[in-house]
Amino acid sequence: MALLVLVRHGQSVANLANVFTGWLDVALTPQGEAEARQAGQRLHALHFDLAYCSTLIRSRRTLELILAQLHQDSVPVVAADALRERMYGALQGLNKAETIRKYGEDQVNRWRRSYEDAPPEGETLHHTQQRVFAYFETEIGPQLRRGKNVLVVSHGNTLRALRMQLEGLSVAQVEALEIPTGGIRAYDLDPDLRIRRAWDLP
User: Fold this and answer.
1) 14 labeled binding residue
2) Which Enzyme Commission numbers does its entry carry (predicted)?
3) Is 44 a catalytic residue?
């Protein structure tokens, strides 16, 4: 039996400013740091053998605050580019409301939520899923198969893509899936990585 826990980073300065972030490397807000500590408090009963995050500071800082809250600072941490947020291309750094005024709400919603529509010069969610799950299969999955408890702190679209693969979600389900900043999803997995139980931590 292995435990996998997925956490979205806390609120970033770009979340607060309502801009497309993608691969922009932005810090957490004070609220985001508080959300990270609260996530650590909600995970207080769990022990982790290994932790993963993206190479972006909002993900790394959230993981750092969670492990400090858990008094598990000695847990080995791997930061990987493969776990970065979806690449939003030419939209990165643009205000979402202004982008809607320029391109129309329907078009912007397709860029944001669609599985197959890519923003200009950016990734589709499908592309994000391919890179994230390839990393999961080669790096994270083997640890889980050894019975390790693994914590992954990443980004909204990254985790949507991973959850689609793990849970067998349909395109419609993943397009509707919302993961709040600081949100936590946990899985009890068998040795073949089949889900025995999945739950959100309140």
Assistant:
1) yes
2) 5.4.2.11
3) no
Taken in order of first residue, the domains within the chain and their CATH numbers are 2-200 (3.40.50.1240)
Q: Is-contact 44 37, C-beta < 8 A?
A: no
137 catalytic per annotation: no
pTM: 0.96
Q: What whole-number distance in Å separates Cα of residue 58 and Cα of residue 61?
A: 5
88 annotated among ligand-binding-site residues: yes
CA distance 115 to 104: 19
For residue 80, list its beta bridge partners: 54
The catalytic residue among 9, 64, 123, 175 is: 9
What are 139-182's pLDDT values in tens digits? 999 999 999 999 999 999 999 999 999 999 999 999 999 999 99
Q: Which of 35, 64, 85, 123 is catalytic?
A: 85
Q: Which amino acid is at 62?
A: T
Is 174 among the annotated ligand-binding positions? no
